[in-house]
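Exercise 7.
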Amino acid sequence: MNKNLPELNNFQDDEIDLKELFSVIWLGKWLIIAITVVFAIGSVIFALQQPNIYKSEALLSPVSETKGGGGLSALAGQFGGLASLAGINLGGGAGDNSQLAVEIIKSRQFTSNFIEKHDILADLMAVKKWNRDANTISYDADIYDIENKKWTREVKAPFKPEPSMQEAYKNFVKILNVSKDKESGMVTLSIEHQSPYIAQKWVTWLVQDINQVMKTREVTEAKKSITFLNSQIKQTNVADIKSILFNLIEEQTKTIMFADVRDEYIFKTIDPALVPEEKSKPKRALICVLGTMLGGMLGVMIVLIRHFVKKED
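Solution. The predicted structure, written as tokens, is:
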């Protein structure tokens, strides 16, 4: 008796099952084609309804400042405790704070201040369409009345017709991208928007604002440190300690002077943001292909399910 006979029978059963599947699919081909066509048309309509989104980006380099190098290291070793107490940074300068600046850009407070300062809430939350020829923005009347500068959207509590900064922040971070290359340290900052001009303008503003925020932050800390160090000088009669304190004051004064003469305090623009000529999304061809494939797979599944349901009955 042939021991391979059971395996042969199983192979024949599998072959019969595959033939049955192909036969079922062939018999239901018109239903599959119909569903595929519906999905294909639907995906085309959906793709055409999606507005063009433009992406503007800038390449930034962290600004590194030399503050005495070895002299600072010596000061840190001699009087590091007092420097820490005074809130003094004896590190390598503004470049060390680039990662902090990246996180500040992503923060709710910075974003809220940015939106309010530049009055961009309507351009963020209510844009309907950008007109290329006239370079104008049209707004969704159900959300914002541009003539009366009034928010008209209907929402349920706790939301209000005028979007809160929490809502605005959630929308802003969707179009914002800030990334830092670990090897080069370069920072890429980009904004996506229906208007390429708005995208470019917002990127430029973001770079200017983060430089100003970091500059103000450093100057404020330096002035507080100088005030503290001056008070310590008055309280000591030890010449060596006074000498170190005066050196620390000198370093903080350099920080203030550096901030006053340099606009690009934390980031230097290597490649400024441009008005993009081509859209970054949507990928309409990809949407149509995926929609058609989804329709075809769904059609096959429906045909097979119907067949096996009837077969069990």
